[in-house]
Amino acid sequence: MVYTAPRLIDLNAKSRLLRGCRKILVVGRCVEVEHPEVYKRFVESGYCPLSVCLEAEHVNMVGFKLAGMLRRGAYEEVSVLTVDGSMHCTQLHWMVEEVFKVVNPENVKRRHFVIHEGELLEVSHEAVKASRFLSRVEKLLKKGSL
After folding, report:
1. Which residues contact 78 (CB under 8 A, 6 or more apart)?
2. Is the Cβ–Cβ distance between 93 and 62 less than 8 Å?
3. Spans in the chain with pLDDT lower than 70
């Protein structure tokens, strides 16, 4: 299988591949191959997929590139799509939240999606934030919330 989604890190921040694109999908590289039916639904819904594998690329480099894209383009939405449970993919969700804190793009919606046992689930910003702080996760576990 040949990947079709361009690697985010390889694109110019104002790439012609992004012109006319209103919704960016930051997608874990393996999703296209491992869950093609889910991936295809996003592409058919008008998302421009940009693949990332944080086993091969550093999160700071990818985040800096995404920040540049957001400052130079006019986007309505940035969504993240990953496999649930991957320690590398989890970083993509954290990275997007961090980029939005730093760049603060007005009127750009951000969403988080994971594929858990073949099922697509949307995850809240709060869940992404909580997952970054082990002390919060521990408190939730002690309360019996998880």
Report:
1. 23, 24, 26, 66, 70, 96, 100, 108, 109, 110, 111
2. no
3. 1, 145-146
Measured from the Cβ of residue 10, the count of other Cβ atoms closer than 10 Å reads 12
Q: Considering the entire predicted model, what is its pTM?
A: 0.93
At 115 the pLDDT is 98
- Written as six digits, the tokens of 101 are 């804190």
* Cβ proximity of 78 and 24 under 8 Å: yes
Q: How far is CA 83 from the centre of its chain?
A: 11
pLDDT of residue 106: 84
Yes or no: say if 35 and 83 are a contact pair by the CB < 8 Å rule: yes
Q: What is the pLDDT of residue 2?
A: 80
* Number of CB atoms found within 10 A of residue 57's CB: 18
Measured distance CA(49)–CA(11) in Å, rounded: 12
